Amino acid sequence: MKRYSKEHEWVELEGDVATMGITAFAAEELGDITYVELPALGKQVKTNEVLCVVESVKAASDVYCPVGGTVAAVNQELDGEPGLVNQEPEGKGWFCKLKGASPADFNALMTAEDYAKFTAK
Amino acid sequence: MRTTPLHDHHRQLGAKLAEFAGWLMPIQYPAGILAEHRHCRELAALFDICHMGEFQVRGPGAAAALDALLPRRASTQKPGACRYNFLLDSRGGTLDDLVVYRLAAEEFMLVVNAGTADADAAFLRERLPAGVEFRDLRNELGKLDLQGPESFRVLAACGVPETAIPPYFHWTLLPLFGMEVLLSRTGYTGERGVELYLPRQRVAECWERLLAQPQVKPVGLGARDTLRLEMGYPLYGHELDPETTPVEAGFATLLEPARAATLRTPQKRLAGFRLEGRRAARAGAPVRNPQTGEPCGIVTSGAFSPSLGRAVALGYVHGGEAPAPGSIFLLGEGAAPLPATVVELPFWRQGTARAQS
To answer: Does A61 touch chain B (CB under 8 A)?
Structure first.
């Protein structure tokens, strides 16, 4: 089950590996994504730190790390095809996998239902 | 915030609306900026440009009065011709950029930017001599831009044959959908197209009937910005402002030499930058010397270029001479500024603006 942050990232946790990206709501708000600066493999990121940058035609936005960990994999396909983030933000448009993610951080995030209410405000 | 006569139409089309120069304008429709940009390069795009301002200047001495006020002459412009021009302060700082339409020997229409229109009107009213009438047409006229390689075929399907369309940078009066419109073969995209001026209360009807043509889609100000950026066209408030002369912005050859001589000495020059990848340098980012890292200018516009598939930027480099094509600079702050190569403008060289269909 995915969890969601107030900064509009989604996270899915399997064991201690968290897969994350930006939410459909965020992708829609940003409009056409033209560039994703993926984090370096092996980079250690703390919870709520800036993980990377996503650019749309109009602007660049920081992407925060909702659960800390070490970057274990990045979605290389976004280099050539950043539009995947608009097409399938919570699937093929994933950003990276973080190893050593804390379940406590994960559980502190919003459920899909809570996030839907949060974005409806 | 002001709205155009098409506000409800934009809402119904699902546009994202945002403030631009005091107006609530469509930035994009659901298709998105990239698709809208492509549509204009390939088919025909319709833009609501009712926020821009139109003034009429007429009466005996109108041509001479405009010659005295503007750095390009109006008196040598033929009736039927349009000419890109500027409003300058006493030192040559740019108060606005505009297009002057010569309607008759002593009758002109000036088309100005939305954000500067009030100040332009005051500037002109104050300086035009007695006997030359200034009329503000902003409440009477609306403006729609139809741009794209298919735009003449669209007009033909609406009863305007291609033979009725004037040459590049000329205008004509013609009937369209039973109304008289002023149509000029001008635009801000680099593609074949026209700008239409018509009674403001009939803009909605014209919009609907043009959109009913299968090749036409609505395009917002987001794509209008990337389209003009690819052509290297200046956007007032970015490449042009009171701190910038038209010579610095690259328009030296257009200016009347006697007037150009009165401008302050150029202190910077506009350059076009092609970046290596998709990541953009944004307006306000420093331009830096690649050897020393020292700031030597500023980016004024920057975005991913949909037609080129990489980022491009316009910006100023300090100094009296324009940097040579091929020169390398670094754009942006921090540890990883973006390398960029100076290239000749326009970035997009396959535009159809001057070509017949």
So the answer is: no
Strand B16-20 versus strand B107-112 pairing type: unpaired
Residue B19 near residue B117, CB atoms below 8 Å: no
Min Cα separation B337/chain A (Å): 13
* Cβ <8 Å between A58 and B16: no
Cβ-contact B120, B42 below 8 angstroms: no
Query: A60: how many CB neighbours lie within 10 A of its CB?
Result: 16
Whole-angstrom Cα distance, residue A9 to residue A102? 16
CA atoms within a 13 Å half-sphere pointing along the CA-CB vector of B338: 25
Residues of B with CB under 8 A from a CB of A: 16, 27-28, 32-35, 222, 226, 277-280, 282, 303-304, 306, 311
The nearest CA of chain A is from the CA of B218 a distance in Å of 16
Helix (H) or strand (E) holding B28: strand B23-28
Contact A83 B34 (CB under 8 A): yes
| Coil/strand/helix, residue B293 | coil
Q: What is the mean predicted confidence (pLDDT) over B187-191?
A: 98
Give the rounded distance of the alpha carbon of B16 from its chain centre: 21
ipTM: 0.90
Are the CB atoms for B252 and B265 separated by under 8 Å?
no
Rg of chain B taking only CA atoms, in angstroms:
20
pLDDT-derived band of residue B357, with 50, 70 and 90 as boundaries?
confident
The chain B residue lying nearest A37, using CA atoms, is B279
Instruction: Give the whole-angstrom CA distance, residue A87 versus residue A75.
Output: 15
Q: Tens of pLDDT along A74-110? A: 999 999 999 999 999 999 999 999 999 989 999 999 9
Judged by CB atoms closer than 8 Å, whether chains meet at A32 and B303 is answered as no
List chain B residues with CB under 8 Å of A86: 32
Q: What is the spatial order of strands in the sheet that B141-147 belongs to?
A: B171-176, B179-184, B193-199, B141-147, B44-48, B216-218
A31 and B33 in contact by Cβ < 8 A?
yes
Q: Which two tokens stand for residue B323?
A: 């940097």
The beta-carbon neighbor of A31 closest among B28, B277, B280 is: B28
Contacts of B34 in chain A (CB under 8 A): 32, 34, 57, 83
User: Average pLDDT, stretch B253-263?
Assistant: 94
Of B33, B277, B279, the CB nearest to A57: B33
Over range A53-72, report the average pLDDT: 95
What percentage of chain A exceeds 70 in pLDDT? 100
Instruction: Read off the pLDDT band of B334 (50, 70, 90).
Output: confident
Packing angle of the helix pair B33-42, B221-231 (nearest 10 deg): 60
Measured distance CA(B23)–CA(B13) in Å, rounded: 18
Instruction: Tell me the sheet residues that pair with B110.
Output: B55, B100
